[in-house]
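Diaminopimelate decarboxylase
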Amino acid sequence: SDCLGLNALGHLTIGGRDTVELAQTYGTPLYVMDEDEIRRACESYRESVNRYYGGRGLVTYASKAFCCKAVCRIVAEEGLGLDVVSGGELYTAKSVGFPPERIFFHGNNKTVQELIEALEYGVGTIVVDNFDELMLLDQLAVSRGKVAEILFRIKPGIDAHTHDFVRTGQIDSKFGLALETGEAMEAVRQAVGMKGVRLKGVHCHIGSQIFDIEPFEHAAEVMLGFMADVKAETGRELEILDLGGGFGIKYLPEHDPVQYDRYMQRVAGAVERTCKARGLRTPFIVIEPGRSIVGPAGLTLYTAGAVKEIPGVRTYLSVDGGMGDNPRYILYQAPYEAMVANRAAEPKTRTVTLAGRCCESGDLIGEHMQMQEARAGDIIAVLATGAYNYAMASNYNRIPRPPVVMLREGRARVVVRRESYEDLVRNDED
Ligand code: LLP
C-alpha cells in the first residue's frame, strides 16, 4: 500500500518510519497503523460520495474492522458516520463523544440492554433485522417517550462471491428480511403503524472482500425495486438506501481492488437509472466500508524464532505471535504477504509456512509464502493486517494481545497498550 517503503538500510518502512526500529522500541508482536493512510481512505470515500451524490450521502466506517478509541476519534474528525454492532463498540464510540446522530446500530440479535443503551445515547439509526426486534424496539421506545429512526436490513438475494443473482440464493442467511417471501414488505406494513419507530429506509450488505462492481449495482437495483414496491403499496417514499460495505483490498500483489471512485460512479449510475425507471426520488445513500479504510494502513511485526526444515515437504518459520493476533488464516485461509523487514530489499527466494506459537497445528499465518531467507531474530512483517486482526484477537493460550502503535506524520504513539499478565488474570477470582 501507499504507506510502505524501503529505507537506506534496506528496512521496510511504514508511514516513513523504520519497522525494525519500531519493533525494537515497542517490542513484538506489534500492530502498526498509519493514521495518515486511514485519513486518506476516509477522504477519498468522502470525496467520491460528495461527487456522485452531491452531498446526499454518508460514508459510515464499519468499526468491527478495527475498533478502539483512537480510530473512533479519527473517524469522527473525518466527518464519517460509524457502524456499530454491539454495546461494546457503542461504548467505545460513546467514550470519545462520537456524535450519536451519525451512528448506525447493526446486528441480528441486539440485546434488550443494547437497544436501551442505543435509545439513551440517541443513536441516529437502528438497523432492524427481524420482527422480534421491531416489536421490542417499538415497546422500549414508546415506554421512554422516544421515536427510533430505523432502517430494515434486507436480503437482496445476491451472492457477490459467486456472482449469482438468484432471488432465492440467500434466503438461508441469519441476517435480514427476505424479499421473495413477502417478509420484508410485511415488516414495512407493521412499522408504518408503530409509534415508537420511524422507518427511514432500507439496508443491505452483500459480502466482504469483493472485487467486482456488478454485484453492488445489482444490489442497488434490487433495493430500489423494493423501495418502489413500498411506495406503490403504502404510498410512502423511503428516504435512505444503505448499501453496506465489502470493498476488497490488496492482500497480495496480484489482487486488483476496485477503486472507490470508480465503484461510486458506477453504483451512482445504477441508482440514477433505476430511480428514473421506477419513478423514485434519489434517496440519501449510505455506504459502510470497514476493511478498505483500515486494512491497508496496518501491518504486524513479529520476531522470527525457530526455522524447521522438513526435507521435501516444507519449511516452518515460527514467529512470536499467530492465531491469537491474526486468526484469519485458520478461519478463512486468508492470504497475506510477508517479508523479512530487516532485509526487505533482498529478493524473495524462499517459500515458507509462517507458523504461530499456539499449541495447535492449524496455528499458521500462511502457507506457500514467498519470503527472503529468515533466521531467528529477524523481524517479520505481515502486511495489510489493519482490519479484522486486532478486532478478532484472542488470549488463547493466555498470550497477551499485542499493542497498537499509530503513526501520524512520522510520529508514533501507542493507542492500545500491550496486555500484561496482570490483565490476563484481572477477572479471575482468587
Ligand atoms: N456493514 C455490514 C452490515 C457488515 O456486516 C460488514 C461486515 C460491513 C459493513 C463492513 O464490511 P467490509 O467493508 O469490512 O468488508 N471477519 C471477516 C469479515 C467479516 C465482515 C462482516 N461484515 C474477515 O476477517 O474477513
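thats it. The mean pLDDT is 95. The chain has twelve helices and 21 strands. bye
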